Each structure stands twice: as C-alpha cells, then as structure tokens.
Amino acid sequence: MPPQVPLPPLATLLSVSLCCLIHTSVLVFDLSAFHFTLSPREIIYLFPQPDLYRLLTSPYFHGSLVHLGMNMMSTTYLSSILERKFGTLPMLHLILALTLLVSSLHTLISFLTYVNPFYSTQKFMLEQSLGYSGVIFTFAILETATSAVQRRSVYGFFEVPTQLYPWVLLILIQIIMPNISFLGHLSGILVGTLIVNGVLDKPIFPSPEFFRYIEEETRLVGKIRNHELYVKVPDNFKGISKENEDATNSLFALLIKLFRVVEKLVRNVVEAILVISGVGGRGNAGSQAPVRSTEMTARNAAIAAERRALMTDQG
C-alpha cells in the first residue's frame, strides 16, 4: 500500500481548494476569466461603477492548468509552513488581507506609472493579470523572515542569503518568462517587506490575543478547532512583524520605518542583481567555493530539523 500524502493545514487546504474549484468551473462551464482579471484601468476609470470586485477575484483565477499547478505547489509548501507558525485563524485572516493588499498595491503602482510627469506609460494600466503568485511572493518574504535557515539554493545552481531569495527568484523568473506579470510579483514582495518591517502589520493584523480569544469564545471556531487539520494559535506566536517589540506608534517612528524599508529594498535589489550576474554580493555564485559534503550535510540536517519542528502538533 503506497504511503499516504499528508494534507496541508486547514487554511492552506481551503485556499488551494478554492483556486482548483474556480479553475475547474472555468473549464467545465466555459467561463471567461477576462471579467475577473486584475485590470487597473477597469478598476480606476470605470467611474462611478468601477470593477472593484477584481481586487478580490484576480488571485483565484489562473490562465492554464500549468499556471494553476505551479502556483498551488508553491502555495501548499509556503502557506503550510506559515500556518503552522501562526495558526489557522490568523492564516485565514492573512490570506484575505493579502488578497486585497497585493491587488490594491498593484493597481496603485500602475496608476502612478501612468500619471507621473517624468516617465508616463500605459503598459501596466492596460495589463490584464491573474493568478496567486503575488500572494505567494508575500508568503516567501514572510517565510524567509521567520526562518532559521541562513542560505537557500536557487534551483540547485547556486546559493544566496535567505533574505535575498525572493528577490533573486523575482528577477530570474522574469528573465526566463518575460511575459508574466512582473508588477504582480513585485507588489507581493513589497507588501511582505512592509509587513515584516512593522509598517503594515498593526493596521491589518489583530493581536495574537484577539485570535486566541476568538478560538476560545466563538462557537463556530470552537466546533472546528479540534479538527486534525486545524492549527491552534501557538503560545509563542507574537505576531508576523519583526518589529513587535517596538511600541512607538508616532508619525516620526513610522517615517523612520519607511525609510529603513526603502533602504532595505534598494540594497536587496542591487545585491540580487549582483548575485545573478555573478559580479559580487553576499551570495556571489561566481566566486563561491563548492560546498563541501560535510557542510551540506549539516545544512540539510538543520533544514530537516526545522521542518520536523513545524510539523509538531501545535495543540
């Protein structure tokens, strides 16, 4: 009897199932995904009745089975890791929030590239995009920010520092597949960076105590929290931002955080480009000595230990 593949946690399973169900409906009923894509022009300029629903629908529609399959494999891996760290209820909230945030930022950047007086372009305003990859890139930023692994392998060719990994993937994927939505992926990275640096976490994410209260006091959640796929909010979960200990909420503190985010973004982009080109950077593939077998074994053991810890029952 072949070994059974374990199901992902509940919030991850629901999001993957929703994407699969929607794509199946498109194929069976011959629906047109055009009416559900993220189209900044349709959202902004169809006043007084803009297609705001596109902000919600576009991530859950996909252009093909290959597109769906690649996105869902990435979602299952990254979302499962985050859900076991955060809990099912916070993960459900996070998925809904990211759906709106990534689509909204994508639309805002498209509009700014069109109306700015320095270099105006209609390219992004007229673009029709769909798929879960923007949210996936936010997941990647959150996962790397909470991971103990210091370096990641890029398709087995070279290694980069963990915090550069999403940026290197962004650039490489765009080089390999230039017709995909660069702005959609970039929006996901930007949202994730703003969250982990404490700019967006408090406005969009209630405290862990709130989720624990909902788990204990709400009848609906109480009925499903004992399900084997439900992950209770861990006792050591303090929030999704690395800046949780910073109690300052003044405008000046927010501006300082934004400055640090911009500085980090510029540094990561430059270093990612240097890594890919082989010129230099902390993850220089061109000058990096081959990893010895003992070092590789130790690193693989660390990764395996982290994954086993994540799989431990949180209840």
TrEMBL record:
Gene Ontology annotations of biological process type: proteolysis
GO-annotated molecular function: serine-type endopeptidase activity
Gene Ontology cellular component list: membrane
Record's keyword annotation contains DNA-binding: no
Tree of life domain: Eukaryota
Name of the molecule in the record: Peptidase S54 rhomboid domain-containing protein
Stored Gene3D superfamilies: Rhomboid-like
Pfam families registered for this protein in UniProt: Rhomboid
Origin species: Triparma laevis f. longispina
Transmembrane segments: 52-70, 91-112, 124-142, 154-176
UniProt keyword annotations, A-Z: Hydrolase, Membrane, Protease, Transmembrane, Transmembrane helix
InterPro entries per the UniProt record, alphabetical: Peptidase_S54_rhomboid_dom, Rhomboid-like_sf
Domain Peptidase S54 rhomboid: 51-196
SUPFAM superfamilies: Rhomboid-like
